[in-house]
What does this fold into?
Amino acid sequence: TPEAVHAIVEGMKWLGLDHDEGPFYQTQRMGRYKEVIEQFLREGKAYHCYCSKEELDEMRAGQTARKEKPRYDGRCRHRTAPAPGVTPVVRFRNPDEGSVVVDDVVHGPITFDSGELDDLIIARSDGTPTYNFCVVVDDYDMQVTHVIRGDDHINNTPRQINMLRALGVEPPLYAHVPMILGPDGTKLSKRHGAVSVLQYRDDGFLPEGLLNYLGRLGWSYGDQEIFTLEEMTRLFDIHDVNKGASALNVDKMLWTNQQHMMRATPERLATYLQPQLAMLGIQTDDLAKLAAVAKAQQERAKTLKEMAGNSTFFFREVVAYDEKAAKKNLTAETAPLLKAARDRLAALESWVAPRLHETIQAVAAEAGAGLGKIAQPIRVAVSGGSVSPPIDVTLEILGRETTLQRLDRAIAHCG
RNA sequence: GCUCCCAUCGUCUAGAGGCCCAGGACACAGCCCUCUCAAGGCUGGUACGAGGGUUCGAAUCCCUCUGGGAGCGCCA
It folds into this structure.
């Protein structure tokens, strides 16, 4: 569907995964597939099968009852005349002797007995080609050298190799990488929240954060955990990939993302923070302020979504104080401290973090108290809660006017 | 059921016969740092699925079992 195609293309674009050509659409290559089907038919490498759905079901039921692997028994292989009133499918004629060896890059040689391979349908009764056949024609036409895919495809590989050989070419190199399981070790499904890569973008992940986490699943480079895109592309080697499946771990995924957020430039974070804030109803084009906030918050959030959530007070009024924080910090006892701080701050000439820090420190010293005694009430006053970046940095970003205004309101609240 | 694949801490992994009474990371616990929260530092507990071999010596090689996964469509 167009939506599915869009999700793939957009997802890769967001991740920065580039491609040299294409994308190609199989729906636009129908003529070519039919051409190869005709060729196979002509060369006796494929044949028409007139078996009905019911007949096939019955055959499989019998095999299952006999504890055999359900598979097509080749009954139409030697049919000479068409069955009247039936539009046939086309089946590929698999060899019935010998074996096929898939020399897999990550698994090593895997042997399949030809007897295990039945004659798969390559064209439906309406003439349209099927997946396993189309990819073979594509790999052949496009001179694909490496096929890297999930190991759920291992069992398809011997048939594809047989079709490639029927085409007269040697198969490409296959590398079957392990699957990714859900956090509970079972197959990944929507149940686990895995919908599309774009979901991770919306959840506030950095492309390099997701890529790093995913890259370390089934692959490693010594004890290194954090890789830049450049390092990953340079250091990655398909031969180092593990065979076993791995389970998704949300905690580590978040940690990996945070590590990348800490390493990213504030300016870049700002461009991702902006849409996250927009989702919270905050519209701003002040890139300088966004970058300042990102810088102050970049090691305090595991995702950009979390960062946005923690940063709303920088962009809009504090509508209500956190109840517990206010009860503890905005009291009759702290009111004089806030007042003193407010007056000293108002007199400041230069509204920058070092000056702000000195000032608050001085107020605390005069009161014979530690910095925490005064910083925390100010924090609640300006942010509404008990958590924020360092108080001097927070006030600098907020600016003089907003800070004083919020302090006044907090002092009033102290009653 | 049949065929194929896989197997080191809860999770991601290092380990390609002695360097391993198994190392790193996430998570967890404690401590330090500290204006909050983080980040950072230090410390701690937890793993080679089982049983047989081979070898002077096995997490590493072989076999069996057990456990998990995938495939067996006129789906992709």
In short: The two ends of chain A are 62 Å apart (CA to CA). The first strand of chain A starts at residue 46 and ends at 49. The CA atoms of residues 188 and 372 of chain A lie 47 Å apart. Chain A has 18 helices and nine strands.
